[in-house]
Amino acid sequence: MKYYIGIDNGLSGGITVIDENQKIIKSIVMPVIKGKKTEYDVNTIVGFFRGLDMDSQIDRTDMFVCLEKAHVRPISGKRACFMTGFGYGVMQGILESLCFSYEIVSPNEWMKDILKGMDTNDKKGSIMWCKRKYPNENWAATERSTKPHDGKTDSCALAVYCYRRNKGIV
């Protein structure tokens, strides 16, 4: 069986794994360490990826990853710009060191395909799309949260885009 992983690498991003039937295997909010300044929890992220082939006997050669390309917005502050680039580099480093096959995809590219025909092509669009495609999935960040987490929905949409790319649908 083949597996497709979508990564929204922002501090408020997410990681989603789907199988070749587009069933969600795992969907998590990007692991971070909260303190004075929120930082990536690199050890937990590495543990997540290492655990994929241990937990369910998934072979890494059967996994395909789409990593969202980071881009800096001019209105963002220095720290936000630094953390965007840092998170992007961290994810590439983890994927490379664990020998995952991955592709870098711009947000416009996957949104153009996944959100085709929708009135919106932003975070709200991915939430609406995921609620329609996976109506029984809980998109909240935690059990106590009530609102959908756009990092989880973006990563899920990226995973489906990854599936489509590898199947030649896109």
Largest sheet: 5 strands, mixed
How would you classify the helix and strand content by structural class?
Answer: alpha/beta
The coarse overall form would be globular
CATH class: Alpha Beta
Strand content: 15-25%
Query: Over the alpha carbons, how many angstroms does the gyration radius reach?
Result: 15 Å
Helical residue percent?
40-55%
Looking at the overall shape, the CATH architecture is: 2-Layer Sandwich
- Along the chain, the helix and strand elements come as EEEEEHEHEHHH
Please give the domain count.
1
CATH fold title: Nucleotidyltransferase, domain 5
Number of helices: 5
Mean pLDDT: 90
CATH superfamily: Ribonuclease H-like superfamily/Ribonuclease H
Low-confidence stretches: none
Major beta sheet, strand line-up? 3-2-1-6-7
Distance between the termini: 21 Å
Notes on the protein architecture:
This protein has about 170 residues and is an alpha/beta fold. It has a single domain (about 5-165), classed as Ribonuclease H-like superfamily/Ribonuclease H (Nucleotidyltransferase, domain 5). Helix content is about 40%, strand content about 20%. The protein has helices at about 40-55, 80-95, 105-115, 125-135, 150-165; strands spanning about 5-10, 15-20, 25-30, 30-35, 40, 65-70, 100-105. The strands form 2 sheets. A 5-stranded mixed beta sheet has the order 3-2-1-6-7. Helix 2 links the parallel strand 6 (about 65-70) and strand 7 (about 100-105). Helix 3 (about 105-115) crosses helix 5 and helix 4 crosses helix 5. The longest helix is centred in the middle third of the chain and has 20 residues, at about 80-95. The two termini are about 20 Å apart. The mean pLDDT is about 90.
